Amino acid sequence: MKKIRQNLYFKRIGRIISILVGLELIAVSVSMFFEPHKIAAGGATGIAILVKELFNIQLSLTLLGFNIIMWILTMIFLDKMKAAKITFGSIVLPIFLAITPDTLVIKDPLLSDIIGSILFGLGLSIIYRLGSSAGGTTVPPMILNKYFHIRNANSLFVIDGIVCLGNIFVSGWEQFFLAILSVGISTIVLNYVQTGFDKKLVVYIMSENHLDEIKTQLTDVIETGSTIFDVRGGHSNESKEMLMLVADTQNYGTMLDIIFQIDQDAFILADSIAEVHNGSL
Description:
The protein has 281 residues and is of the alpha+beta class. It folds into two domains: 2-195, no CATH class; 200-273, 2-Layer Sandwich (Alpha-Beta Plaits). It has ten helices and four strands, in the order ααααααααβαββαβ. The chain has helices at 2-34, 43-55, 59-77, 80-99, 109-129, 139-148, 152-170, 173-195, 211-222, 252-262, and strands at residues 200-206, 226-232, 239-248, 267-273. Helix 2 crosses helix 3 (59-77), helix 2 (43-55) runs parallel beside helix 7 (152-170) and helix 5 runs parallel beside helix 8. This is YitT family protein. Keywords: Cell membrane, Membrane, Transmembrane, Transmembrane helix. It holds the Pfam family YitT_membrane. It is a multi-pass membrane protein.
């Protein structure tokens, strides 16, 4: 029991440290890569950059004020659980922005935008993967979804678009296009890190008379486990067996060669999957 408690304690500490790392990556991307070039790349941090350019108010103060308003709205229109989820990031990120040097690291705006976007996407992926949040503009989409059934992704896209458009009036067209590029890069990085770079394939195989031989060959050559399902043909209504296995994408060509060498008429269905956890099929 004591060992279990220790493991849980260390997991919680590791989770907190990881969230802090993610929040600091966001702070670094904003303070050292976006703000020096006046690039407001969506979200609450983008709003903070626009406000600084207009009224010379510190990023951390604007972000903290905005996050407090979002937290209050969460308490009013959503629930305490969601408010608790965004509390930590809503407070810590402005603190990290305040202590992270506002320094020009890269003079070239495009290169700075690219690197900042990668760091921003990595930071977001870390805190999202751990079930945390930095608050900010993620709150209005949740409220709109609850009361008007508008998809979170759609409303968040509109909000980020409005913030990006603000670059035109505050800093110019160059910053606008850099902001659009940043949103795209950050989204790509976020998606790849969230779902994993090492994509897998789930493959379903049906063969009239050679399924056992196909299973044996694939298990021996590719060294992957498999599962057999009892299914029924939709047209014939006859009982059949279907083989399912998970494999790396680079092995798919080899799998097809093995299957078609055994049965040219085998039915194969493949789909990409993001993650596989535990167990042997």
